[in-house]
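Good morning C.,

I know you're traveling, so I'll keep this short. The sequence:
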Amino acid sequence: MFTGLIQGLGYLQPQGPQQILVKCGGSVPFWEDLAIGDSVAVDGVCLTVETLVTQGFVVSVSPETVQRTTLSQRLQTHQTVNLEPALSVGDRLGGHFVTGHIDDVGVFQGLQQTDTSWELSFTVPDAIARFIIHKGSVAINGVSLTVADCNESGTHFKVAVIPHSFANTNLQDLSPGDQVNIENDVLGKYVAKLLNLPHSPSTATLPEITPEFLATHGFGNL
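The tokens, ready to paste straight into the viewer:
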């Protein structure tokens, strides 16, 4: 489990079949405390430390992870990746609950600087757009952010990034058309599952809220 508060930047290098070397170096305060078996979010992807090396660690990636995330692109372009170690018991939860399980890839559309922040725009596929809601939480490349604005379907949305987060994450390196890892709010996904909502937003119909519906779902004493 993670918070979406990035603690350093790193680079990816191919290490072997389905293995990646994550180079983090002295600029990442936590890498010296890592142990084999620890979980680290790499651009929002939860990966397990298998081998420790000088200023870095080696992880394995499954075909599912390669297909559903941007890690293979980061390997080819040598772009930086955001790094966050897993939560420890007693840590402060400053962002929101982030699992490190990427739902899909979104596309960066552009940014605009304001007096207090940077406004970044993204688009996402229909399959995950229903979880994008105004003032809801979303993790982009592992960064915990709040949806500042979105269209009705959720396929296009904006987030406001404060200067500290912009300067200390790879969000500052994005160019229009770049792909990013998207993790929707885990609570929204479970609610959709419990309500048995269809995946297609064009056919999604919310159930009618009636006394019977409330009683069935545990609200009979209201």
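Safe travels,
E.
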